[in-house]
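Hi P.,

Sorry for the delay on this. The queue was packed all week, but I finally got your sequence through. Input first:
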Amino acid sequence: MARRYDPERRQRIIDAAIRVVGEKGIAGLSHRTVAAEADVPLGSTTYHFKTLDDLMVAALRQGNERYAKTFAAREALRDPGTDLAAELAALGGEWFAGDRTGLEVEYELYLAALRRPALRPVADEWGRGFADCLAERTDPVTARALVALIDGICLQVLLTGAPYDERYAREVLARVIP
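Then the structure:
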């Protein structure tokens, strides 16, 4: 059988891994489950991603990039004339609008870094990048505190299944912003 050139295969494998984690959690992630989900030969997953950690790094990085784009698209966050707490709370509302699977997958991969050191630098990328952007409006310490607070609010909402409360988020974020 002749090999087919498939330039999108690597991306399909990453997308499949994200779907598998969304449906089965990290425990359900294997080269075999991803290959089946992506409808590719098992050898393709191991060719593109030698280890599951390599695959999780790629999936986490893709999630980081998606959330970074939502942040970058909110120009008001960089405008010193806007209410930063209100803008950040509204951004959280965007993240929780509709299906929460994307956020759940992102946090599951993020928390997997506790046991998988290969994921730690990528898990840290998002927080550092977000804090760097926020430091343009505040100071570095406050920016890091805001990122930690936003992470905490998101985790509480995901763990409890409660609706995201934008008004509450705005109030607590405003307490941290000088």
